[in-house]
Amino acid sequence: MQIDQFLKRGAYHPTFCEDFSLVQPLEPHKLVLAVMDGCTMGQESHFAATLLAKILRKVLKEWPYRAIYDPDLQHLSLQRELQALLAALFTDVQQLKNQLLLSTAELLATLVLALLDTRTGEVAVLALGDATVAINGQLTRFEQDNRPDYLAYHLGQPFETWYNRQQQRLHHTMCVDLALATDGIDSFQPLVPTEGLPDVPTYLLLDQRRTGQPEVLNRKVRQLEKEFSLVPTDDVAILRVQLA
Predict the structure, then answer these.
(1) At 233, is the secondary structure helix, strand, or coil?
(2) From CA 89, how far away is CA 93, in angstroms rounded?
């Protein structure tokens, strides 16, 4: 199994990177992956993306202990387990919002969350906001007209009510190549006029060249800049896992 991560501040964001990513085992054969994108129009949006990742990491660390006291958590389908993880995240964000007296504007961040069974290849994905997901060479784009329906907008309502309205879901039973990316994947622009530009999402999320080499995504992004003067103008976070 090869796991590649890439995170870069966009050229139009001179101070902070507003994206974040997380990869963490849930069990010996399960992996949780997530990319977050803070809302530029929000308040301290780099904080929102990072905070969401930290809360998710807390949920994942607590999960084995929760399962001891709630045996039902040990027998969930992958899709239901993803829902349960998100429910725990939702509750913790609600509580932290109240404890820290945070405004909604301080919590605006998109979230793409995937639960991957590395033994069977089954994967469940939920995208909350704009994002691109690739599974086995197939790109899926989730677009909300650059006006994401952030999780933070719905913290005042029951989780189930909100979750049942979510449509941006994917499920695959034989995944061998999975990639998640924030919408910054579409922001690459040439610094100087350049012809013959490659398709960046295809190159970074689907292309199989250099598989097995360390820092593949970093190498490819450097190549894009060197050969085509292409750089991301928006912050971008990418995760890619190849099982075979």
Answers:
(1) coil
(2) 6
Could you please state the CATH topology (level 3) that the domain comprising 2-242 is classified under: Phosphatase 2c; domain 1 (3.60.40)
Given a contact cutoff of 8 angstroms between Cβ atoms, the answer to whether 53 and 92 are in contact is no
Q: Which residues contact 182 (CB under 8 A, 6 or more apart)?
A: 19, 35, 36, 37, 110, 112, 130, 131, 235, 236, 237, 238
Inter-axis angle of helices 45-69 and 78-99, nearest 10: 120
pLDDT in tens, 17-64: 999 999 999 988 999 999 999 987 777 778 999 999 999 999 999 998
The answer to whether residues 176 and 244 touch, using CB atoms and an 8 Å cutoff, is yes
Sign of CA dihedral 78, 80, 83, 84: negative
This prediction has a pTM of 0.93
